[in-house]
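Hi C.,

You asked whether I'd gotten around to modeling the 124-residue construct. I have! Everything is below, sequence then structure, no commentary in between.
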Amino acid sequence: MSFQWKTYIDLAERLHQESETFAETEACQRSAISRAYYGAFGLAREPSVKEGLALTHTGEDHKNVEQHFRRSSQKFRKQIGIELSRLKRLRNKADYDDLIPRLPKETIKAVTLARKIEINLEGL
């Protein structure tokens, strides 16, 4: 059985909800953002491949999956690409920036974007 990418989004939500009690708050919030992105990316990658996108198994796949959806003529598919791009920017901040202003709000935004992507992908 293949990995269920949705479980990363579930984990992100749990890390956010329990960030005050589980472990170091900032580490939980940063991890939640990262898991939210990778969960959404993993969910979006599968239909992209089924629709003909060839994976490179490099970092380029992140951009290629996003662009696959952004190039669509269907508004909700374009939205998947736009939201995946926004989520990736949040993930990059969480993984690389020393300071993240409004981290709690950014964490909520990341989990919300991941859930929206998940719902839109269910409509494919």
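If it helps when you're writing up: The helical segments are 6-17, 25-50, 60-70, 75-96, 103-122.

Thanks,
B.
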